[in-house]
């Protein structure tokens, strides 16, 4: 009874809060050279209370990086945290050594300088830390940035693209807070992510012009899916998914957006000048099995610790109040009929089929919902390369989910085309380029096709993982190398050189007991030894 009363109180408080804080819009940096410094700072989520945060070139979040296709990008990432970290360019197609995965560390007070050539379609991507066992902490502290990729195909379209005016990035996130107004980075309490923020702003409002506006939605939260809609019941048009524009706008009324997914939507504010409309999370419509729904039970009513005490679960709440003001000159006033041509991968030229089974480590009722989870019966191990993929392979991956919670599966290096979700073709807004897909719970399945092109590296792997970061940190991750079979590192039949040492994937000398290690020879050659699971 007491519990029910307090939940009701919290709900009342949430509903009575007025939008009062101007939406923070991260500044942009335009390439090709970028200087990024990660450091601690603080913000006042609650007036008068300083909350310690971390951010890039500012107290929280990070500048939006504008990248043009074909640019030769150089980035300096200066880590001023007390922790080692990494910086991962989520969605970007680049060499694995530049990808900023868990193997490519940036120790405190050092600068990491990746470089690559922009090859991505015009799209909304993002960047965040990815050090294994610190990813949750560093994102939760505030480190999240947008990447806006631009290309020629997008720039000829009649769609909004004036950043901060009619083209607005929106990072949807939640935080777990302590009673002392500090960010709680204890993963054990991850299910009490009760504070919603958009672009690090509580109770946010933004003034937008009475015309078509473009919202770049990122679910940057660590656990939760959102079910986006407009408070006036109006439809909106999805124009892009994770890796690029769709072939044509898809008219929708609700949009489920899982962790790390991005969708760009067009909203028609033309007739609303002088009034307001709210961007809502319709949590009451989130399907069972998806984190954010009211009840995530199953298997005899077992549930996630604290889940029922989190007032955000299953509720409808305001994410952003849009106050509609006068239109700009050269306003976009109509929704285009078509967007871009998508050259999807061809199912007739498949080199390999792989399967990824998602399961709980302990198949008991609570394990089935709260984890830890694993892929193919094996928790993540930094020293095991799970898949070795020949360069230029076209592959179909089939993901099946044996647990009672939906998992947003993400793969680095590539964009994919979804072939099937639970045996059916994907809905139109998911039929373009994707790097995250929510795999439905309880024997749900997803099939996608992709191609591993351009970048081979036998040493540094790319990752694939659940983007519910608590699940990832608990071991729901695997890694793959892309290897070019035409360039053998060493000729095994003709070794007339001296073995100098054996090192592990971190460069530490090892006695070769690891599953993955390297022989370093006196003539400078390296031989890799992998023991596949
Ligand atoms: Cu958003 Cu492996 O990353
Ligand atoms: Cu990624
Ligand atoms: Cu998961």
Q: What characteristics describe this protein?
A:
about 525 residues; mainly beta; 6-stranded mixed β-sheet; binds CU-O-CU linkage; binds copper (II) ion
Question: Can you describe this structure?
Answer:
The protein is mainly beta and 533 residues long. It is 6% helix and 39% strand. It is built from 5 helices and 35 strands. The protein has helices at residues 2-16, 135-140, 152-155, 367-370, 469-473; strands at residues 21-22, 28-30, 33-46, 49-56, 64-68, 72-79, 88-90, 110-112, 115-117, 123-128, 145-150, 167-175, 195-198, 204-209, 212-219, 226-230, 236-241, 244-252, 255-257, 262-268, 276-282, 316-325, 352-360, 373-375, 387-390, 394-401, 407-411, 417-421, 436-439, 444-451, 462-466, 477-483, 499-504, 516-521, 526-530. The strands form 7 sheets. Strands 1-14-22-21-16-19 form a 6-stranded mixed sheet, with no helix packed on it. The chain is globular. The model is unreliable at 1-16 (pLDDT under 50). Residues 373, 407, 466, 468, 471, 476 line the site of one copper (II) ion (CU).
Describe this structure in a few short sentences.
By secondary structure, the protein is mainly beta. The protein has 5 helices and 35 strands. Helix content is 6%, strand content 39%.
Topology:
Layout: H1 2-16, E1 21-22, E2 28-30, E3 33-46, E4 49-56, E5 64-68, E6 72-79, E7 88-90, E8 110-112, E9 115-117, E10 123-128, H2 135-140, E11 145-150, H3 152-155, E12 167-175, E13 195-198, E14 204-209, E15 212-219, E16 226-230, E17 236-241, E18 244-252, E19 255-257, E20 262-268, E21 276-282, E22 316-325, E23 352-360, H4 367-370, E24 373-375, E25 387-390, E26 394-401, E27 407-411, E28 417-421, E29 436-439, E30 444-451, E31 462-466, H5 469-473, E32 477-483, E33 499-504, E34 516-521, E35 526-530
Parallel strand pairs: 1-14, 2-5, 3-6, 5-11, 12-15, 14-22, 23-26, 25-32
Antiparallel strand pairs: 3-4, 6-8, 6-9, 7-10, 10-11, 12-13, 15-20, 16-19, 16-21, 17-18, 17-20, 21-22, 23-24, 26-30, 27-29, 27-31, 28-30, 31-32, 33-34, 34-35
Bound molecules: CU-O-CU linkage and copper (II) ion (2 copies).
């Amino acid at each position: 009874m007491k519990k029910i009363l307090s939940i009701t109180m919290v709900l009342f408080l949430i509903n009575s809060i007025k939008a009062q804080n101007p939406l923070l819009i991260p500044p942009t940096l335009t390439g090709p050279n970028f200087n990024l410094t990660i450091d601690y700072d603080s913000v006042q989520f609650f007036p008068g209370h300083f909350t310690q945060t971390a951010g890039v070139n500012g107290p929280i979040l990070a500048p939006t990086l504008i990248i043009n296709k074909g640019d030769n990008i150089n980035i300096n990432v200066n880590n001023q945290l007390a922790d080692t970290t990494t910086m991962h360019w989520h969605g970007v197609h680049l060499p694995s050594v530049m990808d900023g995965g868990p193997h490519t560390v940036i120790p405190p007070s050092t600068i990491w300088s990746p470089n690559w050539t922009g090859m991505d379609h015009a799209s909304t991507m993002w960047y965040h830390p990815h050090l294994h066992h610190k990813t949750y902490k560093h994102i939760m502290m505030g480190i999240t940035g947008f990447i806006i990729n631009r290309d020629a195909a997008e720039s000829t379209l009649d769609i909004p693209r004036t950043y901060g005016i009619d083209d607005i990035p929106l990072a949807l996130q939640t935080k777990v807070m302590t009673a002392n107004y500090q960010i709680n980075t204890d993963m054990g309490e991850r299910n009490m992510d009760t504070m919603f923020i958009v672009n690090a702003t509580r109770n946010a409002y933004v003034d937008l012009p009475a015309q078509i506006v473009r919202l770049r939605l990122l679910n940057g939260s660590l656990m939760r899916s959102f079910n986006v809609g407009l408070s006036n019941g109006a439809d909106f048009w999805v124009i892009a998914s994770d890796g690029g524009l769709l072939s044509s706008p898809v008219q929708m009324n609700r949009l489920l957006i899982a962790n790390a997914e991005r969708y760009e939507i067009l909203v028609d504010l033309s007739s609303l000048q002088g009034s307001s409309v709210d961007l809502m999370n319709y949590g009451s419509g989130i399907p069972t099995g998806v984190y954010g729904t009211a009840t995530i039970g199953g298997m005899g009513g077992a549930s996630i610790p604290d889940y029922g005490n989190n007032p955000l679960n299953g509720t409808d709440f305001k994410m952003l109040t849009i106050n509609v003001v006068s239109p700009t000159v050269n306003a976009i006033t109509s929704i285009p009929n078509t967007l871009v041509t998508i050259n999807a991968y061809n199912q007739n030229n498949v080199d390999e089929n792989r399967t990824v089974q998602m399961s709980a480590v302990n198949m008991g009722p609570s394990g089935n919902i709260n984890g830890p989870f694993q892929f193919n019966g094996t928790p993540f191990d930094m020293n095991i390369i799970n898949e070795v993929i020949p360069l230029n392979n076209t592959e179909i991956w089939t993901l099946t989910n044996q647990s009672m919670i939906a998992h947003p599966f993400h793969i680095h290096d590539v964009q994919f085309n979804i072939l099937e979700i639970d045996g059916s073709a994907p809905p139109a807004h998911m039929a373009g380029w994707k790097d995250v897909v929510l795999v439905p719970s309880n024997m749900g399945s997803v099939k996608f096709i992709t191609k591993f092109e351009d970048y081979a590296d036998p040493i540094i792997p790319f990752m694939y993982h659940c983007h519910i970061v608590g699940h990832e940190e608990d071991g729901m991750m695997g890694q793959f190398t892309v290897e070019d079979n035409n360039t053998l590192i060493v000729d095994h039949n003709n070794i007339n050189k001296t073995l100098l040492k054996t090192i592990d994937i971190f460069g530490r000398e090892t006695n070769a007991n690891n599953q993955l290690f390297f022989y370093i020879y006196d003539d400078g050659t390296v031989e890799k030894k992998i023991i596949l699971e």
